[in-house]
Amino acid sequence: MPEGGLLGIYAHPDDETFGIGGTMARYAAQGTPVTMVCATRGEVGEIAPGTGATPETLGQYREQELRDACAILGVSDVRFLEFRDSGMAGTPENDDPRSLYRADPEHVVAALVRVIRDVRPAVISTWDASGGYGHPDHIAVHLHATTAYHAAADPARYPELGRPHRADSLFYNVIPIDEFRSLAQELEKRGISMGEAPGGDENLATLPRLTPNCVVDVSGFYDLKRRALRAHGTQISDGDVFVNLPEDLGRRFFGREYFFRADPTLADGVVLSDLLAGAG
Asked: Are 16 and 66 in contact (CB under 8 A)?
């Protein structure tokens, strides 16, 4: 397997398309190695009508949906960890001992260190501390991926899991709240409601936020990203607002992806346009 490139570490199938789908497609089209690691199979997500999925089979459906979405984006190296979707905060699924939320951090970090040392990426990307909208699994994967990024480089940590590897940089996926609000306002002017944000609008507004210092232009991969989104059929129904965005708003909203380079830090005011700038 070629070294370098991009390793995405996310919590659920469909996180990748919403968060980093265009960036993955852009690098894959350039021949850059891209790997997607998903910590769970999204077993307790919603089930859109007409898909045939049941609560018992949803994880199988969503695993295939992620593989299908990544194939559309040009990514063939897709890996799953063996943790279970924890559901939203306060739900019974949070108490499931198989869930990512309840998992021993050492077990999660070790699983990620194994992948990092195998793939040997130049850049790692994961959720920021907000988890986008506060999902416990998104926050957990942020914490565990950050720890694994450092641990993979330390020869004293997990020596049985392969040669140490220090990736050049760690990026956090950032939801651009101002862009999100602007989109909602424009839709409202056109008589379209976005509905309440996952976890609640109030929760979305109070989560810790980072100002992006890397904005990637993925407008050339807009159509692929929309197709990949539709591959997540159990989660995206025909009536979903993101499927039915007016073309101009869709291209604006999905045409850029936002990140914060956490390590090494950037000087204030510096904004990158490429996760791999300076890597290697």
From this structure: yes
CB-based burial label for 133 (10 Å; 0-12, 13-18, 19+): middle
Residue 272 DSSP code: B
| Contact predicate 133/173, CB 8 Å | no
**In the predicted structure, residue 200 carries a pLDDT above the cut 90:** no
What's the pLDDT at 136? 93
Taking only the tens place, the pLDDT of each residue in 164-181 is: 999 999 999 998 877 777
Q: What is the CA radius of gyration of the chain?
A: 18
* Pairing verdict, β 34-38 and 77-80: parallel
Q: pTM of the entire structure?
A: 0.93
pLDDT at 253: 86
Residue 165 and residue 2: Cα distance in Å, rounded? 14
Task: Report the C-alpha gap between 206 and 200 in whole angstroms.
Answer: 10
Contacts of 76 (CB under 8 A, 6+ apart): 70
Cα–Cα distance measured from residue 203 to residue 220, given in angstroms and rounded to the nearest whole number:
33
Write out pLDDT tens, residues 118-130: 999 999 999 999 9
User: Could you give phi then psi for residue 164, rounded to 5 degrees?
Assistant: -55, 150
Q: In this structure, what DSSP letter does residue 99 have?
A: B
The bridge status of strand 214-217 relative to strand 77-80 is: unpaired
